[in-house]
Amino acid sequence: MRGKPLAAIVSAGLSKFGRRDGFSGRELFAEAALEAFERCPNLDPKKDIGALIIGNMSESFEHQCHSAPIMSDWAGLLPKPAVRVEVACASSGAAIRYGIFAILSGLYDTVMVGGFEKMTHRTTFEATEYLAMASDFPLEQWNGATFPGLFALMATAHMHEYGTTEEQMALVAVKNHHNGALNPKAHLQREVTVEQVLGSRVIAKPLKLFDCSLISDGASCAILTRPEIARKYTDTPVYIIGSGHGTDAIGLYERDSLTSLESIRRAAKEAYEMAALGPEDIDVAEVHDCFTIAEIIAYEDLGFCKPGEGGKFIESGAPTLDGDLPVNTSGGLKAKGHPVGATGVAQLYEIYLQLTGQADRRQVDGCEVGLTQNLGGSGATCIVHIYRRG
Amino acid sequence: MRGKPLAAIVSAGLSKFGRRDGFSGRELFAEAALEAFERCPNLDPKKDIGALIIGNMSESFEHQCHSAPIMSDWAGLLPKPAVRVEVACASSGAAIRYGIFAILSGLYDTVMVGGFEKMTHRTTFEATEYLAMASDFPLEQWNGATFPGLFALMATAHMHEYGTTEEQMALVAVKNHHNGALNPKAHLQREVTVEQVLGSRVIAKPLKLFDCSLISDGASCAILTRPEIARKYTDTPVYIIGSGHGTDAIGLYERDSLTSLESIRRAAKEAYEMAALGPEDIDVAEVHDCFTIAEIIAYEDLGFCKPGEGGKFIESGAPTLDGDLPVNTSGGLKAKGHPVGATGVAQLYEIYLQLTGQADRRQVDGCEVGLTQNLGGSGATCIVHIYRRG
Q: Which CATH number fits domain B7-122+216-238: 3.30.565.10, 2.30.30.140, 3.40.47.10, 3.30.70.1290?
């Protein structure tokens, strides 16, 4: 099925990201669902949507597993069947992929995919512990590893192997904060300078506070249909033309490289081949900048630049809003925020806005093809999707 | 696709269920995977299996989410992509369904589905709390509801509405312990009498200790392929010919009935219609007897008997090993054990053994068509599959 649409996006919704005191995960999901429904008046949700596939990382934040039926209920979809998929921070990226499978199976014409996470009511200690569950228990968590620590190891290795600098990493934060300041749904809507990033307190050397993404509340959703029926619902469908899923060993200690993520390279290869496109064809991308170093590694493993040249790529300005390949126009996980289970579909939401010309002050002119890259844990999972304007 | 095979089971594996001190979830899954591989020498797992879809309920037992890549690793499948699906105790039932979707999508020829849960290293208090997360947090958990309590409400309503008796519920336990005593992989391999069940200590009135399923460790898996290629791998494939998924409100307080589960009826209807069969065609079934009352309700909502007649159905002897429609020949959750995430695929495993004549002392002669029914939580989720001997 090279180059052929796998599914069409006919609508999407996103809650405001941030510290949403007093709102639970189910309420945030209802907020996202409502936007998607209002955006698509030709669709009768309860009649037309066949199933819900929802990404959520952790039962611990809200002491709630079995959240899929709750989300179906709060989106007004009951008794439509619902399932949760989980691969850490790539949970809703996987929801997109399994939503596509559900449509390609022929059993459903239309499904809703989404994700949510309610995090900010917990202490930083609790959130750090819950997130750490996405790393290996016996050999990483047990020895005190946390995610800032694991990504700091990658950053150190990248600096050692390729000469990547803290200033280059800071430029990623500066770019994403600039974009986030243009996004009314972003958690942090303010610019930062290289000096502010470099001067922020050290979290796990060489990563400082402004190298880290945010603990946020939020939810996201999208409505996918068979491409053949998309125009029943919208004049501006976006087609998903490539889907890739890469899996690697969970522990850093099991991997051949600390400076490149095999899961990204595999997911990208699968998605590019399916789409019959290459990195040179991408006009706009949302990548998983859970830490600034992760965005630099993503540039390289997605083929936006050569291995080791991610630092130079951000220095060149190419991934800025006015550059050749704008990356994280939404503000990314860094500024838009990172309610982990919501992130994969939130990336899709931004690309959907861009390819339908609804990205307002962040709009990339004339973009036709977009890409999302959603990472789970320290890279044991990666999901890549490629999109084309309808 | 009425009556046509959706997928073929070419192999399956099950770890010993029980208190598996010193074994982690990943080791139990490797044990199950090894049996499936040994049973199917024509299959090269690393080459032929395209993806792993794994059911697991709770990150809390082993302080580990993002378990899918770990299971892919421990089954020797890396770098094949892996995803976890979660709908409480129906997690691996859902893994079967999404495994079928993955095959029907045309993207994979062969996938592994499975499930696992490691529970017995936790205290009963901890296990009860983690399991309770599958009920509604704000209105059930918060008010002290636990699963024995929720099913006790259903049992009380059933007794009130239909005159169902504690003796009838006890007969379900007696039957399943009888079958479990014939199953070398069962957690409890010993018979119980009606008197023992009635005399066991009250957990949540009217449910007593022997009305409750077990907290167990265990793992399960199966290898599914496109039906067209099944005979490359085995001379005795089993075809999955129906799949149903029902979802209902999570809280008992939101439902119209306490004596019937809408999710079972919807899942059964979808599966029967897909298989072009009815309850009268089923020769052997594994149903979700998390509590004895749940098996009685399952008889009714699956159409094995009329509403309200589940008590009489077990009294008639119909679901015993020598009856007209043997149910839970494995011993069920009650005696085989209930490592929650493993249960859905463990039910498939028993039906696979039965339909291929490998069930040894539990063999049901001449069975051609089997059914599995896997419940999540107090019934917000139900997954039903129907199988036919190849």
A: 3.40.47.10
